[in-house]
From TrEMBL:
PANTHER family: SUFE-LIKE PROTEIN 2, CHLOROPLASTIC, SULFUR ACCEPTOR PROTEIN CSDE
Coiled coil: none
Pfam families given in the database record: SufE
Protein's name in the database: Cysteine desulfurase CsdA-CsdE, sulfur acceptor protein CsdE
Family: Belongs to the SufE family.
Residue ranges of domain Fe-S metabolism associated in the record: 20-139
InterPro entries named in the record: Cysteine_desulfurase_CsdE, Fe-S_metab-assoc_dom
Catalytic residue positions: 59 (cysteine persulfide intermediate)
Amino acid sequence: MHTLPAHPFGTDITSNYILKKMAACRSWEDKYRLIIQLGKKIPPWNSTLKHESIPILGCESKVWLAWQNIDGYYYFAADSDAKIIKGLLALILALIEGKTRDHLKNINFESYFEVMNLLNHISQSRSTGLRSIIEHVKKI
């Protein structure tokens, strides 16, 4: 596997930072804009990395996920061809980056998204795709 593209999630942009920014949003439209902005911080992948990564089934959009285990800690990269999905991937990356396998299995993703009140505002197909991404992470 090639070196994963660097991103700021889990280091410069943490899940706590995202939760604070989401709490400051006054409307769903503000949250939507924030999600899109966060997604723009995920670097685009080249075709080689996409070919070597895991395509996530269950998403209407194309989604790719890759990870590396370095000394028992997992580092991730993700990409999508859809802006909103790329933004949702950013939210996930902020939560999972640099965690151990046990930590990944015990993350309460549902609670994380409930606190941001996102699950009520995304389509059923995006919700299904999001759950598929989370299931892949938990199976690592």
